[in-house]
Amino acid sequence: MKKFILSIVFAIVCSLSFAEVRELTFPKIPVYNDSIGYGYDLNTTWDGKSNQPFFVSFNLPDGNYRVTVTLGSKKRAASTSVRCESRRLFVENLATKKGKFETVTFVVNKRNIYFTDEKGKQDRIKIKPNEGGKLHWDEKLTIEFNGDAPAVQSLKIEPDTTVPTLYLCGNSTVVDQSNEPWASWGQMIPRFLTDRIAVANYAESGLAVATFLSQNRWAKVRSLLKSGDYVVLEFGHNDQKADGRPGNGAFYAFSHQVKQIYDECKEKGATFILCTPTMRRSFEGNVVVNTHRDYPAAIHAIAEREGITLIDLQAMTKQFYEAMGPTESTKAFVHYPANTWPGQDKKLEDNTHFNPYGAYEIAKMVVMGIKQSKLEDLKSRIIPTFEDFDPSHPDAFESFHWNISPFVDIVKPDGN
Questions:
Q1: Stretch(es) of the chain classified as CATH 2.60.120
Q2: Residue of 79, 255, 353, 361 marked active site
Q3: For strand 309-311 and strand 271-275, is the pairing parallel, antiparallel, or unpaired?
Q4: Is 349 annotated in the active site?
């Protein structure tokens, strides 16, 4: 209890002490410490020449923050990607010529585990032990500069209370995966949205709808939800593990729990979007088969009954894997021979969890689902350069370029 109270006080102090606008000019900025509350972080710095990734953090209260970065260098050509928190992609391989600069603006959601419910009670999300210390749960907003030759001239960060928030609820196929070589579509989708919306990813590996509720993850989202926001929900992978117990099942407890979230979302004036679960890579011959039992059908039934927008990721991922085929489709998943990653003495063969390429392609499917919907306001927040995506004709694996982050963990996420 004492630790909880101190954390609340600390968050309040941070809120009171944060300047409305913070501007930095690179490369001469300080190394992060709590007394100044910003600077180079995670044992990295940048001298204006190095091609190694580096991180900058700001100690901030919960909220959405508008980030404006000017990328490029007077002394060299550059190629820079910008990711935030746990590898959340915002700027992808932006090339600048020597002496040329590009200014980009995006909005980042920052959060911690604490919240105040609708009755004024202080509460917290019951995160799992392996979530402790993750960048998307701490008191800092962390920005990663990566790329073939990253270069940043300046950075400005300021609170933004005007944009709507797109909340993501789901499992390991949605979560902001912290470590290479894992990735999920939820951390890729900001790349395809404008600075007129923020993405708040509350998904976590191993969760079912029941645990999303019982661990207070939905309670925190509900406490923040406002009219004009959006909630996207994708479950089904882990929910089936409770089948066989009295009252459980796709058309019983699961459907009731999804309906509860939808009703509370509707009460807040937010828009609810359902996704069927991504298919596992489970081939019989050249055909991908359903491993999710009745859950996709139950999701379709809920969407039809309640008039909810549905994005059919089951159908689209099936098209995607089958277009690549039984062998090539491994390139979208965490399939790597032994010794590809540090400490990996055995091959990785995971047919549930995606690598960055697979996650990127599925994020495009979600964006296409939005584009094909009747949600005109949300559609208007897709970047104008987004090209229609057909999962039967995916991007070539060889065309995808991802500079790895320095954090690697070969342990499979929960829920495999």
A1: 1-161
A2: 353
A3: parallel
A4: yes
Residue 95: pLDDT above 90?
Answer: yes
322 is catalytic: no
Q: Give the torsion through C-alpha atoms of 244, 250, 256, 259, to 10 deg.
A: 160
First to last CA, the chain: 34
Query: How far, in Å, CA of 182 to CA of 334, rounded?
Result: 7
CATH architecture of 1-161: Sandwich (2.60)
Residue 244 has pLDDT above 70, yes or no: no
Residue 380 has pLDDT above 80, yes or no: yes
Q: Is 353 a catalytic residue?
A: yes
* Helix (H/G/I), strand (E/B), else coil: 329: helix
Catalytic residue, chosen from 57, 79, 86, 172, is: 172
Q: Which residues contact 146 (CB under 8 A, 6 or more apart)?
A: 53, 80, 81, 82, 83, 403, 405
Q: Is the pLDDT of residue 416 over 90?
A: no
Residues with Cβ within 8 Å of 328's Cβ and at least 6 positions away in sequence, in order, are 397
Model confidence at 240, pLDDT cuts 50, 70, 90, reads confident
Backbone angles phi, psi at 110, to 5 degrees: -120, 140
Residue 11 has pLDDT above 70, yes or no: no
CATH 3.40.50.1110 domain range(s) in the chain = 163-416
Q: Encoding tokens for residue 307?
A: 């008039």
Among candidate residues 23, 267, 304, 349, the one labeled active-site is: 349
Dump pLDDT digits (tens) for 316-355.
999 999 999 999 999 999 999 999 999 999 999 999 999 9
Nearest to 203 by CA among 316, 359, 318, 92: 359
Q: Would you say 169 and 274 are in contact if contact means Cβ atoms under 8 Å apart?
A: no
- Average pLDDT on 13-19 reads 41
Phi, psi of 249 (to 5 degrees): 125, 160
Has this prediction a pTM greater than 0.90?
Answer: yes
Residue range 163-416 in CATH 3.40.50.1110: yes
Give phi and psi for 94, each to the nearest 5.
-80, 115
User: What pLDDT sits at residue 140?
Assistant: 97
